[in-house]
Amino acid sequence: MGPPQAEETLRKVLGFGVDRAVLLSDRAFAGADTLATTHALAAAIRKIAAEELVDLVICGKQSIDGDTGQVGPGLAHRLGMSQVTYICGLESLDLDAGVIRAWRQLESGRELLEAKLPAALTITEVCNQIRYAPLPSLIAAAEKPVEVWSVDDIDVDRTKLGLKGSPTRVNKIFAPPLRERGEVFNTADSSPAEAAAAVLDRLTKHGLKICRSD
What we know:
Layout lengths: L6 H9 L6 E3 L9 H16 L6 E5 L10 H9 L2 E13 L4 E8 L2 E8 L2 E5 L11 H9 L3 E3 L42 H14 L9
Parallel strand pairs: 1-7, 2-6, 3-6
Antiparallel strand pairs: 3-4, 4-5
Helix pairs in contact: 1-4, 2-3
């Protein structure tokens, strides 16, 4: 889901071997937060699922602008699918048994999870490396059609779309101010005690209260 220029990105993935590309693009989707976004995307996926089986919905772990990480889990909830997030590797996919096993990235390591299909996954950047797209595939991708769906092409409640259907709004986006470079102490010619004393002296001048215990 995005503006018309998002078609360029879809043509790129067509060059990597994707069979079909669909772009949701309509002013009715503009200004959507994650709740309204998943409402529209889920409707589009249901339309595709009416034509062919949908076993997996694969999302990035988060967008580079909103950075919320909510769209993948939101789609899983709306579509009634198993949810597995922060995938850093796929162990196995058994379509006959309807089971997927994948590694999930944690702060202190990773864990192996098993989920029933259909499932929605969010993928980290280390999960896979994009394969090289050969020139013939890129040429063929340029000739493949990118389907563009408007709000009229999906079965959706319009009151839950776009800015009007978004309970959250971004009032302001800004880059944090640059922090001044910290002071560097050259202690090459000082003993540990002298270096520590110099640091303590500077900290106390900046108002830090130091409690000493003998």
